[in-house]
């Protein structure tokens, strides 16, 4: 009986090396593959660092725009407060005119109208100061990271490439990863500071809207009072601004 496994005895062993060349060729092939992979990793971290740097620049520009917008909103709110103080003075003048038209004795012993308290000054913002400090910290590189990235290779692999060009490439990759970690931390802090500043400015916009509506109501009311003093018709409602046509 023939050996059923005899057909395989004389077959050559399959080679898993590159092209079935010599050991030196195989070593050279794998060295090139290792260097190619490390170069791709190095290029990838370099691109990521550049993209993160661009994101930091965009974030810093957004922060600067928000701080400039805050200055405009603060000036607007202060102007509205000044307008309100002016309308209070105008109301006192109107009350004096009413006294003259209504008769001296009628108003001689009348109580002086209570003055409205002045508006509270625009509150100082902690979010703007924090945002400015965050942007300054990004520029100076003072932002600290919660933890540095570890080595990309194991101890045995690092010992194997010690003294070779791959060691320098691996060190550059580690440096890039550490820089990316710092950039991501900067972006996180900047995002949180931007969020707080936006919320603070939303509150400012609400206050500005309230003060603008209040001033508009007061001005309409004073316009109504002045028209009545001057004897214009059709001024039953303060909202009526079309009654300049005829006098009584």
List keywords for this structure.
syntaxin binding, disordered C terminus, transport, SNAP receptor activity, mainly alpha, 5 helices, protein transport, 0% strand, coiled coil, 248 residues
Beta strand count: 0
Distance between the termini: 138 Å
Number of DSSP helices? 5
Query: What is the makeup of the main sheet?
Result: none
Helices and strands, in N-to-C order? HHHHH
Helix content: 55-70%
Query: Quick one: overall form?
Result: rod-shaped
Q: What does the average pLDDT come to?
A: 78
Beta strand %: under 5%
Q: Compute the gyration radius: what is it?
A: 39 Å
Q: Which regions are unreliable across 5 or more consecutive residues at pLDDT < 50?
A: 12-17, 104-110, 240-248
What can you tell me about this protein's structure?
Keywords: Coiled coil, Protein transport, Transport. GO terms for molecular function: SNAP receptor activity; syntaxin binding. Belongs to the SNAP-25 family. With 248 residues, the chain is mainly α. The chain has a domain of 127 residues. It is built from 5 helices and no strands. Helix 1 packs antiparallel against helix 3, helix 1 runs parallel beside helix 5 and helix 3 runs antiparallel to helix 5. It is rod-shaped and about 120 Å long.
């Amino acid at each position: 009986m023939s050996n059923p496994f005899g057909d395989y005895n004389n077959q050559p062993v399959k080679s898993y090396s590159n092209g079935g060349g010599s050991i030196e060729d195989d070593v050279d092939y794998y060295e090139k593959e290792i260097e190619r992979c490390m170069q791709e990793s190095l290029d990838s971290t370099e691109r990521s660092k550049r993209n993160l740097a661009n994101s930091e620049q965009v974030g810093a520009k957004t922060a600067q725009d928000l701080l400039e917008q805050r200055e405009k909103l603060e000036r607007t709110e202060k102007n509205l407060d000044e307008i309100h103080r002016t309308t209070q003075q105008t109301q006192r003048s109107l009350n004096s005119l009413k006294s003259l038209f209504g008769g001296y004795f009628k108003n001689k012993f009348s109580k002086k109208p209570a003055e409205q308290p002045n508006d509270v000054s625009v509150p100082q913002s902690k979010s703007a100061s924090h945002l400015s400090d965050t942007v300054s910290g990004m520029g100076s590189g003072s932002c600290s990271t919660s933890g540095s990235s570890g080595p990309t290779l194991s101890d045995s692999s690092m010992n194997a490439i010690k003294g070779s060009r791959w060691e320098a490439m691996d060190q550059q990759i580690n440096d890039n990863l550490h820089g990316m970690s710092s950039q991501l931390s900067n972006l996180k802090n900047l995002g949180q500071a931007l969020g707080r500043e936006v919320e603070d400015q939303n509150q400012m916009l609400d206050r500005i809207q309230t003060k603008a509506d209040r001033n508009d109501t007061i001005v309409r009311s004073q316009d109504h009072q002045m028209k009545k003093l001057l004897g214009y018709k059709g001024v039953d409602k303060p909202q009526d601004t079309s009654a300049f046509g005829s006098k009584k």
